[in-house]
Amino acid sequence: MKILHLSHTGLEYDSRIQKAMNTCLKNGLECSFYDLGYSNSLNNLVISGHLPFFWNKIRDKVDKLMSKIKPDIIHAHDIYAAEICRELKVPFIFDSHENWLDPPKHPYKNPILRYIKHRGLNKFSELCKEIITETPTLTVNETILELYKKYSKHVYLLPNYITLEESNNINFKAKKEGVTYVYVGNDYPNRAYFRNIDRLVKLFLTGKYGKLTLITNKNPKLNEYVTVQKFMEHRELLNYLTQFTVGLLYYEPCTDHHYFLANKFSEYAHAGLCILYVKSLTNVARILGDLGIAVGAEDLEETLKDLRDRREYLEDKGEKIRRFAVKNLIWELYEDNILKAYNQV
């Protein structure tokens, strides 16, 4: 069986696509990858809710590629790829890397911008509903799975956990002195409001709660208590994380937290970090139970103050999370769902 993996982002930027292709190969399937291109332009579609003038050009390229390699199934890794498959009337599955049926609403003070954005989101929500009703679908966490199953019984869970091989190859480093925190995440001008970490950074800049390292795409000048590390290759990242005591899953208050399960959750866990997360992240709470530490916006400062001299307690939690992760938070436990989805096409 030939599988064509289709996405609007490059293969090097999405480890989920790489893992899915490896699953195909080890199960004797032929697979290839095609990048739709126009990544930034396609992401901006959500603002208008309309397909762009170059849409037909992209679809025609995919059509020609189909004629050339003749795949049996297309594995569509985003809603744009899935819509192209629908228009071409070719067999495909939809791999929903995020929740498109009820995506986070980004508030704007300007009522006109707010109206335009919500109109675009509503159109994509309707499109997602049509896609998951018509074709087998994979998605990344239990909450989105439950939502999608209202519209189709052919929805399968495939969390974006690291592989067992990646976990086994982690090179554990000596912990940094004291209680140290790490946060992994992009920083960009138009980031969603709930991803804003300015409050978190300001707390650590005071030097009252330990040291924080941000692994991000920017390099601002901060101080001795908050340092910045540029993004790195995934294996290097996993090794680097092991030096810290606590991994932060921090978001500003948002009504959509119950749909979130960030990739860094699995990375923190396998690196043996204690995980401190906002308590509205229900997927994290469901998985970790009392292994992690849940915190509300109102008691964040008090919690950080309480933990600053409890290194042994935090490291013990991190070791327990690591043991739990190796048994429960690995890609291989769920990868057969890819094959189940293919068999439903």
Describe this structure in words.
Helices cover 43% and strands 16% of the residues. The chain folds into two domains: 172 residues, 3-Layer(aba) Sandwich (Rossmann fold); 164 residues, Rossmann fold (3-Layer(aba) Sandwich). The mean pLDDT is 88. It is an alpha/beta fold and 345 residues long. It has a six-stranded parallel beta sheet with strand order 2-1-3-4-5-6, with helices on both faces. The chain has a six-stranded parallel beta sheet with strand order 9-8-7-10-11-12. The two termini are 12 Å apart. The chain is built from 15 helices and twelve strands. α5 crosses α6.
In short:
The protein has helices at 15-26, 39-43, 45-48, 55-69, 79-88, 111-134, 142-148, 164-168, 198-205, 234-241, 263-270, 282-288, 300-307, 311-328, 336-343, and strands spanning 2-7, 30-35, 73-76, 92-96, 137-139, 155-157, 180-184, 211-216, 226-230, 246-249, 274-278, 293-295.
